[in-house]
């Protein structure tokens, strides 16, 4: 589904903030529009903060935990989010996302992204059909080959599905430090639209090759593990946020980490995962306000490395 313009229901968002006991000023640069980035292949614009679902949405059939994830997803959409990333690798996450999507009203303008994670053409097709049934979507916006697994085989299938209008974009994923060389070769030679890999204020390996290559090849970039699976909070959250974070409208560490990522010009969106409404609202605050300039980004790196 496309986002030519994205209107944020501010009243609903503010109500969600109040329900979570979060002061609006703490998460949202007042009055600013959501930051959107174009997908190079189409020009369609995506909000720069999306949502991951590994572990956080793998809650099985437990009614209480499903309801709490529904609240997280509502907060995400009310704050202007669209892109949701999942995978058949993430246990019950796809089923839980589907259950939640069916209950968000009005029906949200989501950008549905999942992955194929198996070997073989027949298994891949079966798995993608199953994922669509779990999500309850007629088609995925983005289908990614998870961790490059059997990528030559799945790429053939995905090109066929894209030509038939059964998916909109094709992507390939990896995570921190894994198979960057092979991913770079795919980026250089294959007709894909998106890449997904790890990038955050401490894990900056992608700056050397993958990010410039994505920009050069006109590929959209989705960033996983933006908080190093939560380790950035364990390491830094007891430290005071530097006063100059205010200059780019970061009111907390979550926004500091996310704004570092999405201020890289080659990044299309980051997909932080959370199981909590208050954390979701903090994270979505990074969708608004100013972003750090290159000089400030260098200062952010120096600052965290010195802590
Ligand atoms: N190869 C691949 O394709 C691949 C690999 C890795 C990841 N991914 C995708 O990328 C997504 C993101 O990566 P990730 O889940 O590994 O890690 P992440 O987003 O870097 O970190 C998630 C952790 O951060 C915590 N958190 C989130 N917001 C917070 C906040 N505002 N304050 C404090 N803690 C906060 C969460 O705990 P709470 O629940 O308590 O908030 C959770 O434990 C995944 O969910 C998945 O969709 C893809």
In short:
With 307 residues, this protein is an alpha/beta fold. The protein has helices spanning 10-19, 24-27, 63-78, 93-101, 121-135, 151-163, 180-189, 210-217, 231-236, 253-262, 277-284, 294-306; strands at residues 36-38, 45-47, 83-85, 111-116, 140-145, 167-173, 194-198, 220-224, 269-270.
In terms of topology, how is this protein built?
Blueprint: H1 10-19, H2 24-27, E1 36-38, E2 45-47, H3 63-78, E3 83-85, H4 93-101, E4 111-116, H5 121-135, E5 140-145, H6 151-163, E6 167-173, H7 180-189, E7 194-198, H8 210-217, E8 220-224, H9 231-236, H10 253-262, E9 269-270, H11 277-284, H12 294-306
Parallel strand pairs: 3-4, 4-5, 5-6, 6-7, 7-8, 8-9
Antiparallel strand pairs: 1-2
The structure holds NADP nicotinamide-adenine-dinucleotide phosphate.
């Amino acid at each position: 589904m496309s986002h030519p313009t994205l209107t944020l229901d501010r009243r609903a968002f503010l109500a969600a903030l109040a329900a979570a006991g979060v002061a609006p000023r703490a998460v949202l640069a007042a009055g600013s529009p959501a930051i959107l980035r174009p997908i190079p292949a189409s020009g369609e614009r995506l909000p720069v903060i999306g949502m991951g679902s590994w572990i956080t949405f793998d809650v099985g059939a437990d009614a209480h935990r499903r309801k709490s994830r529904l609240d997280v997803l509502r907060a995400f959409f009310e704050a202007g989010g669209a892109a949701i990333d999942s995978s058949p690798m993430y246990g019950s996450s796809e089923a839980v996302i589907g259950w939640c999507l069916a209950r968000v009203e009005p029906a949200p303008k989501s950008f549905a992204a999942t992955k194929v994670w198996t070997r073989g053409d027949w298994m891949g097709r079966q798995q993608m059909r199953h994922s669509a049934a779990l999500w309850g979507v007629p088609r995925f916006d983005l289908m990614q080959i998870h961790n490059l697994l059997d990528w030559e085989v799945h790429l053939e299938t995905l090109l066929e599905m894209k030509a038939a209008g059964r998916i909109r974009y094709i992507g390939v994923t990896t995570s921190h430090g894994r198979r960057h060389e092979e991913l770079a070769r795919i980026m250089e030679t294959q007709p894909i639209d998106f890449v997904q890999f790890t990038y955050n204020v401490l894990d900056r390996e992608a700056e050397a090759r993958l990010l410039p290559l994505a920009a050069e090849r006109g590929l959209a970039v989705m960033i996983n593990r933006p908080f190093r699976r939560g380790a950035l909070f364990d390491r830094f959250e007891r430290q005071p946020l530097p006063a100059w974070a205010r200059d780019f409208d970061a009111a907390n560490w979550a926004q500091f980490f996310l704004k570092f990522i999405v201020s890289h010009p080659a990044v299309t969106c980051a997909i932080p995962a959370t199981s909590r409404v208050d954390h979701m609202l903090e994270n979505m605050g990074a969708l608004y306000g100013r972003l750090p300039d290159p000089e400030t980004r260098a200062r952010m790196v120096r600052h965290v490395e010195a802590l």
